[in-house]
Amino acid sequence: MIYIFSDDSRLGRKGLEIVEALDLPIRVVNINKDSLSNIIWLEIVAMLNCELKTIFNIDSELKIEGLDADNFVKADYLNLVKENPSILKNPIAIKGSEVLRIFDKKEIFQFYSEIKSEETFYNVSLQQTQKINKPLRAI
Known about the structure:
Protein name: Arsenate reductase family protein
CATH class: Alpha Beta
Strand order of the largest sheet: 2-1-3-4
Helix content: 40-55%
Order of helices and strands: EHEHHHHEEH
Number of strands: 4
Largest sheet: 4 strands, mixed
CATH superfamily: Glutaredoxin
Family: Belongs to the ArsC family.
């Protein structure tokens, strides 16, 4: 499980608090500190079935840099996110082959809590099985 966010995003920081509170083995990637490879970004948009321009909020960055997004190709978006990680406004949650672009902090809990519920069920079932399978003492 992976949680990808930018430190510059308020939603990303709030989501990080939720991820940490879930106490699950979730790998956290803050793209302000650890950049993702171009291949990873391309895999994410393929799994989301969208284009790179839809996961990045580039309007404010373009005004600052004087760029024209209408002429952007994939490499332009990939270079822009490396230089300006703040363009990722919405965190991305990954578990297995499922990917979710987060728009509300409740989605983070819902997305990862299914695993927490399954894990809790498994642990309770395992404990019950172990209690039942204990050998009987000889009388």
